Amino acid sequence: MRLEADCSNCQSKVAFNTWEETRADYARNKGKSVVLPCKNCGLEKEYHINDFTAKSRVYRILSKIVLFGLCGPMAGMLGIAWVASGFDLYVLVNGIVSYSVFWMSVPLLLYTILITTAKRREKAYNSYQVKQ
Which terminus, N or C, of the chain has the lesser number of Cβ atoms within 10 Å? Predict the structure, then answer.
């Protein structure tokens, strides 16, 4: 999970990645604060773990790869089958129906699962504050 905070000097994002699921887990395993330099202005500051918010970009990127990586080639195969059939309308309609019912449901299901997991992890991290 990616944790982001705002730099107190230039207001740009200061971020790092962690495998911890919640702020409590992070505080228990690695402490309540982390020292990070700002990539924009170079200011090195100690941030409390409550200053960070969770962003699950990896899951969103992965889910788009799954969605478009599976749907794109499947659409290409449908187009090739339609051209190979001599532009037969029955083959096109039959392919679209079977394609949309079965082959589109698999990537969309994976996409939905990954997005739901990412949102749940973000909410679990951002909903709890550690005592200072």
Answer: C
Q: Residue 97 burial (CB < 10 Å; 0-12/13-18/19+)?
A: exposed
Q: Whole-angstrom Cα distance, residue 18 to residue 28?
A: 13
Q: Tens digit of pLDDT for each residue in 10-32? A: 989 998 888 888 888 889 999 89
Single pTM value for the model: 0.64
What is the span of the domain harbouring residue 92? 57-126
β-bridge pairing 44-48 and 53-55: unpaired
Same domain, 47 and 69: no
Mean of all residue pLDDT scores within the chain: 82
Residues 19 and 56: beta-carbon distance below 8 Å: no
Nearest to 68 by CA among 38, 104, 42: 104
